[in-house]
Amino acid sequence: MKGVTVVEHPLVQHKLTLMRKKDTSTSQFRQLLKEIGGLICYEVTRDLPTETIRIETPLTEMQAQSLSGKKLVFAAILRSGMGMLEGMLELVPAARLAHVGLYRDPATLECVEYYFKAPAELADRWVIVVDPMLATGNTAIAAVDRLKEAGAKTIRMACLLASPEGLSKFRGHHPDVAIWTASIDERLNEHGYILPGLGDAGDRMYGTK
Q1: φ and ψ at 181, to 5 degrees?
Q2: Which DSSP symbol is given to 71?
Q3: Which three-class secondary structure state does DSSP give residue 201?
Q4: Scanning 78, 107, 128, 130, which has the fewest C-beta atoms within 10 Å of its C-beta?
Q5: pLDDT, tens digit, for every residue of 147-205?
């Protein structure tokens, strides 16, 4: 699908397999989500803009590459997005953070916003939306809608799993937002969960039901 990149690195796929197993413990799931978040972040940021600066090594001066422009913004969709965020921050510790609080109404599957906080000057920053599951697409669409309202211009999406239905719907609403995911699974079930999937990422990460 245009605008969608599946991260097929062996380490990503191995960790995803471990996360899918129903007997993976809460602590293991949380650690794996952190690790896979960092690996996916590496791919999402592959083409960040750089500039040449002069530095001094212990031996001599040289021209070297450095990130240019304003700091990245990681926009985590609460609550499960926080699990991937930890690994991404280890890779880019200077990134700014935005938080988008949304929950999915179990009856309509539509999302409801309850919290939003983002850095200033979003128009000048790369914004990476973080959420492990892109299922129906409603939550991701609402999050990007809200970020665009706040001024974001350059937006990307990082997720762990995606459904074909969710990808199609999201790309229809936001064709300018590219997506990176570890897997495009088979389909959604009647309750809006990804199959074969890995269950509810938030519940498995926090040990709740």
Answers
A1: -145, 155
A2: P
A3: helix
A4: 107
A5: 999 999 999 999 999 999 999 999 999 999 999 999 999 999 988 899 999 998 988 99
Which SS3 state, helix, strand or coil, does residue 26 take?
helix
Residue 89 CB coordination number (10 Å): 18
104: tokens are 């999915």
Domain that holds residue 83: 4-206
Inter-residue contact 77 to 84 (CB < 8 Å): no
Q: Is the pTM of this model over 0.85?
A: yes
User: Domain containing 145 — which CATH number?
Assistant: 3.40.50.2020
Provide the CB-side half-sphere exposure for 120 (13 A, CA). Answer: 0
DSSP 125-157: SEEEEE-SEESSSHHHHHHHHHHHHTT--EEEE
How many domains are contained in the chain?
1
Tell me which DSSP letter residue 122 carries. G
Please state the φ and ψ torsions of residue 187, each to the nearest 5 degrees: -170, 180
Give the tens place of pLDDT for each residue, 27-76: 999 999 999 999 999 999 999 999 999 999 999 999 999 998 888 999 99
